[in-house]
Amino acid sequence: VGGARKAFFNGVPSFSVSYDWLAGKSHTKDFTLSAEAILPIIQAILVEVKNETNPQRCFLNIDLPANVANHKITVTPLGAISQAEIDSQAYFKDWLPRVPRCFS
C-alpha cells in the first residue's frame, strides 16, 4: 500500500493488492486462486490506464480475503471518498494536533 500511495502522490496511476493470510487456515493454493481472481481486475485497470480513462488523483487498494473462493474481493478507491493531501497537514491537525507543529 505504501508504494502505491507514494506513486499516487507523484502522479503515477497505482494500485495495491493485499492478501489476508491466516496461519493454519490458508494454503498455498489460495495464492493461485487469488491470482486468478485479481487478474481480470488488473487487466481492466491496465486498459483504463492505456486509454487514459482511469480516475485521476486516486489509487486502488484491493484486499483479497482468506479463502478467496468463498468471499468477495473488496476494491476501495482511495481518494475518491475524500481528496488526499500531499503534505497531510489538515489530516494530522485533526488526528494528532502536535505533529504539524513539530515539522513546521
UniProtKB/TrEMBL annotation:
Give the protein family. Answer: Belongs to the SurE nucleotidase family.
Keyword annotations:
Hydrolase, Metal-binding
Identify the species of origin: Parasponia andersonii
Concerning PANTHER family, the annotation shows: 5'-NUCLEOTIDASE SURE, PHOSPHATASE, PUTATIVE (AFU_ORTHOLOGUE AFUA_4G01070)-RELATED
* Lineage, uppermost ranks: Eukaryota, Viridiplantae, Streptophyta, Embryophyta, Tracheophyta
Task: Name the chain's protein.
Answer: Survival protein SurE-like phosphatase/nucleotidase
Q: Name one GO cellular component term.
A: cytosol
List residues of the Survival protein SurE-like phosphatase/nucleotidase domain. Answer: 1-80
Q: Which domain of life is it from?
A: Eukaryota
